[in-house]
Design a protein that fits this description.
This protein has helices spanning 2-40, 64-67, 367-370; strands at residues 57-58, 97-113, 116-135, 138-161, 169-191, 196-217, 223-247, 252-261, 264-265, 268-278, 284-292, 296-297, 300-309, 313-322, 329-333, 338-342, 349-358, 372-380, 385-386, 389-390, 393-405, 413-425, 431-446. It is elongated, with a radius of gyration of 26 Å. By secondary structure, it is mainly β. The chain has three helices and 23 strands. Strand 7 and strand 8 form a beta hairpin.
Length: 454
């Protein structure tokens, strides 16, 4: 009997040691991914010509669990995931859980203009977040997420001089740009009462871009002009959130959420360098102009709600308003030769989203009963103008699955797979359609459970 108990004890210790080693490997891998993401985030993950405007193509900052739901987030409250879009939700993480979540995205884009079509492919490491219970009723989260992306390269040509008896003179304009902006955040959520939770995120916000415009002509005696726009910012970002939970009956529970992000100027510089190079010599001349604190983050407010029915079906809606219209943008005035901040280049951005998540039988034993089936749709108005007209709106339709992962030591982790079809609408210029595949892996483990061996 003694040897039998000793064998059971040794076996339990071996299993515990193996689990601890596995946890260490996961920690090291995910922390390494989070450490590398800041440098990866500076690599362009888009080839959209629309990314040359403003701060680029804005990220929806959704994670694997809600990307298939159209990105809804403000009213979602689930202790199995890190909902970074509303920090009040961190208080839902239970005292035994340690959550890591990381995602990647692959994208195929199609561009059409004037009867011509072009397909491109891009892929990137998307985000990495972690969350756990810090104190009773207090959850903590941290991570790295993209804010926007800039990446494009195209040419435009046209006739600038066509004399009757002479050769035509054409102009070739080349546009190239790359960069982006990201944020590393640390946040906490506190369940103040049975129904009310409050939270905040404090972020380090940074990024840069390089945008070049080169103008050349078919005239060998003319100069080649290059205008290089460069910017680098390093600042902070503050976000606050709240959630209210209210049972409606024995089977339905309502959660209402709201977030506020404070707008402010970003520390940094924007430089414009103009260079003229003769095509038939090595001579060059140029000028340089600099602006301090050229960019600002908009004041943003979001509201949303979700209903959880019978612990199986979640329906959610969101609305977001970003006050871009009151912000200035660095603009070069060719007539005056000045580089200054001017208004009228941005407009307020509105976004609405709706999504569903259905798990047929949360307490079931069959695999298909435990899978999450997701669907969502969203529409966002543009936040910038192209000349005198508004930029394109963005219509997104998404769907996906949350596949449970089971093994001998974990039954709470999830593989999230979603697909998105995105179309830029309402613009008479380039037509853009994108198809995205998002893969997110959520490790949710009971790391803080106490072990007992009899």
């Amino acid at each position: 009997m003694y040897y039998s108990c000793l064998f059971v004890t040794l076996q339990s210790e071996i299993e515990f040691t193996n689990k601890r080693k596995m946890k260490k490997r996961i920690i090291v891998s995910l922390l390494a991914a989070m450490a590398l993401l800041p440098s990866v985030a500076q690599v362009s993950t888009t080839l959209s010509p629309f990314s040359q405007y403003g701060l680029g193509v804005l990220s929806d900052q959704s994670a694997g669990f809600n990307r298939g739901m159209g990105g809804v987030a403000y009213g979602l409250r689930n202790g199995k995931f890190v909902n970074m879009q509303n920090p009040a939700s961190y208080s839902a993480i239970d005292s035994l859980s340690m959550i890591f979540d990381a995602g990647v995205t692959g994208q195929i884009s199609n561009y059409k203009e004037g009867g011509k079509s072009l397909n491109t492919k891009t892929g990137n490491f998307d985000y990495a977040v972690a969350g756990f219970r810090l104190l009773p009723h207090v959850g903590l989260a941290l991570g790295v997420v993209p804010y926007s992306n800039i990446g494009y390269s195209y040419k435009h040509s046209g006739i600038i001089n066509a004399p009757v008896d002479g050769a035509k003179t054409t102009s070739i304009q080349t546009y190239d740009g790359k960069g982006g902006f990201s944020q590393f955040f640390v946040g906490a959520g506190w369940q103040l009462t049975k129904n009310l939770s409050l939270g905040f995120n404090v972020s380090y916000f940074w990024g840069n871009y390089n945008k070049d415009i080169q103008v050349a002509t078919s005239d060998a005696n003319a100069n080649v002009q290059t205008m290089s726009y460069e910017a680098s910012v390093s600042s902070y970002k503050l976000d606050f959130g709240a959630q209210w939970q209210q049972p409606l009956n024995d089977k339905d529970q309502l959660t209402v959420g709201a977030t506020v992000s404070l707008g402010h100027k970003l520390s940094g510089d924007a430089d414009l360098t103009t260079t003229n190079v003769s095509q038939n010599s090595t001579s060059a001349e140029g000028t340089s102009l600099t602006l301090n604190e050229p960019f600002s983050l908009p004041f943003t407010v979001g509201v949303g709600a979700s209903i959880l029915h019978n612990r199986s079906l979640t329906a959610a809606v969101d609305y977001t308003l970003q006050k871009w219209g009151s912000l200035d943008y660095p603009v070069f005035d060719k007539a005056q030769g000045t580089y200054s901040l001017q208004g009228g280049y941005f407009k307020d951005r509105h976004k609405v989203a709706a999504g569903l998540d259905w798990q047929p039988k949360p307490t079931g034993r069959k695999f298909l009963q435990l899978v999450h089936y997701r669907f969502g749709v969203s529409y966002a108005t543009p936040y910038y103008k192209i000349g005198t007209q508004d930029g394109p709106g963005e219509l997104t339709v998404s769907g996906g699955f949350g596949i449970p992962i089971y093994n001998s030591w974990n039954n709470r982790s999830t593989l999230n797979i979603s697909a998105q079809w995105v179309r830029n609408t309402g613009c008479d210029l380039i037509k853009e359609n994108m198809f995205r595949i998002n893969i997110g892996l959520t490790f949710n483990e009971r790391w803080f459970a106490k072990w007992k061996v009899d």
